C-alpha cells in the first residue's frame, strides 16, 4: 500500500515536472517571439526616424562648431548628456500619452510633421534670402570670439550647449513621436523596450558621429604632418572634404525634413494618402516600375512637405508681424 502511494506520488511529481518544463518552453518561445517583435519594431522605427537622424546630425554638428578645438569633445559630451535628459523626459511622456490618450498620437505626429516641414522651408528661405557675405560675417565673428582672450569662453560654450540641447529636444520629440506611432498598438512592455532602445541608440549614434565629424579636420591636420606621402595626401583630402561633408549633411538633413514631415502629413490625411498612393501606383506601371514607384512616392511626399512648410512659415511670419504692430 505504501509502495503504491509512493509510486503515485512520484508519478504526480513527474507530471508536475513535465508541466513545468512545458510551461518553461512556452514562456521561452513567448520571450523569444517578444524579443523578435521588439527587434523588428525597433528596426522599423529606426528606418522611419532615419530622416530626422540625418537632420539631427547636421544641426548638432553645426551647433558645436565654432568652439576651440580642445573644447569640441567636452561640448559634444555636454550636449549628449542634455540629449539623454531630454529623452528621459520624453519617453515616459510618450508612454503616458499612449496609455491614457492614444487618440493624441496622430495629432502629435501631424504637428511634428508640420514643424519639420516649417524648419526645412525656413532653412531654404534663409539660404535664398540672406546674402553669402552675411553668413561669412557670422562665421568671422565666431572666429574672432575664439581668438579674443577677453571673451568669456565659458559663457560662449554654455550658450552653444543650451542652443544645441534645445534643438535636440525638438528633434528628439519628433523621433519619439514617430517611434510611438510605430508601436502604438503593441503591448506596453514592447513599447517601453522599443522607445528606450531607440532613445539610447539615437543618442549614442548621433553624438558619436557628431564627435567624429567635428574632429575630422583635426585628423586631417594630424595626418598631413606625417612623414609618409600617402598619409599627407590622405590628410589633405580629409581637410578638403570636411567642409563639403558638412554641407552635404545640411542638404541631406533639409531634404529629409521635407520627406519625413511630408510623409507624416500624407499618412495623416486620408485624401492625400490615397492621392499619393495613386500617383505612385501609376509610376509603378513604367519600366522598372518598382524603382519609379518609390521615387514617385518620395517626391510627392517632399512636394507636400514643401507646400506645408511654406504655408506654416507664411502663417508664422504673419502672426509675428501682427504682434509687432500691436506692440508698436
Molecular structure report:
The chain is mainly alpha-helical. The protein has eleven helices and no strands. Helix 1 (2-48) crosses helix 6 (153-183). The chain starts with a helix and ends with a helix. The model has no long low-confidence stretch (mean pLDDT 75).
Radius of gyration: 27 Å
Give the total of beta strands.
0
- Helix/strand-derived category reads mainly alpha
Q: State the share of residues found in helices, binned by percent.
A: over 70%
Low confidence ranges = none
Largest sheet: none
Q: What is the rounded distance between the termini?
A: 104 Å
Q: What is the H/E order?
A: HHHHHHHHHHH
User: What is the global morphology?
Assistant: globular
Beta-strand residue fraction: under 5%
Mean pLDDT: 75
Topology readout:
Layout: H1 2-48, H2 50-64, H3 72-100, H4 105-129, H5 132-147, H6 153-183, H7 188-214, H8 216-224, H9 229-268, H10 270-283, H11 289-327
Features:
89% helix, 328 residues, mainly alpha
Quick structural summary:
The protein has helices at residues 2-48, 50-64, 72-100, 105-129, 132-147, 153-183, 188-214, 216-224, 229-268, 270-283, 289-327. With 328 residues, the chain is mostly helical.
Amino acid at each position: 500500500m505504501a509502495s503504491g502511494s509512493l509510486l503515485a506520488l512520484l508519478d504526480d511529481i513527474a507530471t508536475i515536472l513535465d508541466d513545468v518544463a512545458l510551461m518553461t518552453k512556452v514562456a521561452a518561445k513567448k520571450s523569444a517571439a517578444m524579443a523578435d517583435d521588439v527587434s523588428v519594431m525597433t528596426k522599423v522605427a529606426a528606418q522611419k526616424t532615419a530622416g530626422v537622424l540625418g537632420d539631427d546630425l547636421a544641426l548638432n554638428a553645426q551647433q558645436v562648431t565654432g568652439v576651440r578645438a580642445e573644447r569640441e569633445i567636452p561640448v559634444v559630451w555636454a550636449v549628449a548628456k542634455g540629449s539623454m535628459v531630454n529623452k528621459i523626459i520624453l519617453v515616459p511622456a510618450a508612454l503616458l500619452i499612449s496609455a491614457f490618450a492614444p487618440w493624441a498620437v496622430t495629432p502629435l505626429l501631424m504637428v511634428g510633421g508640420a514643424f519639420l516641414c516649417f524648419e526645412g522651408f525656413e532653412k531654404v528661405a534663409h539660404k535664398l534670402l540672406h546674402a553669402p557675405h552675411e553668413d561669412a560675417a557670422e562665421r568671422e565673428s565666431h572666429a574672432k570670439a575664439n581668438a579674443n582672450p577677453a571673451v568669456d569662453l565659458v559663457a560662449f560654450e554654455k550658450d552653444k550647449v543650451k542652443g544645441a540641447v534645445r534643438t535636440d529636444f525638438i528633434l528628439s520629440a519628433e523621433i519619439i513621436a514617430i517611434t510611438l506611432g510605430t508601436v502604438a498598438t503593441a503591448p506596453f512592455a514592447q513599447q517601453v523596450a522599443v522607445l528606450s532602445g531607440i532613445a539610447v541608440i539615437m543618442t549614442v549614434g548621433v553624438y558619436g558621429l557628431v564627435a567624429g565629424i567635428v574632429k575630422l579636420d583635426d585628423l586631417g591636420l594630424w595626418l598631413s604632418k606625417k612623414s609618409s606621402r600617402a598619409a599627407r595626401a590622405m590628410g589633405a583630402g580629409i581637410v578638403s572634404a570636411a567642409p563639403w561633408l558638412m554641407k552635404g549633411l545640411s542638404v541631406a538633413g533639409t531634404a529629409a525634413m521635407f520627406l519625413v514631415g511630408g510623409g507624416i502629413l500624407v499618412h495623416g490625411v486620408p485624401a492625400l494618402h490615397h492621392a499619393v498612393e495613386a500617383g505612385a501606383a501609376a509610376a509603378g506601371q513604367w519600366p522598372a516600375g518598382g524603382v519609379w514607384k518609390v521615387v514617385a512616392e518620395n517626391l510627392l511626399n517632399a512636394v507636400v512637405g514643401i507646400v506645408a512648410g511654406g504655408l506654416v512659415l507664411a502663417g508664422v511670419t504673419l502672426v509675428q508681424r501682427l504682434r509687432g504692430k500691436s506692440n508698436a
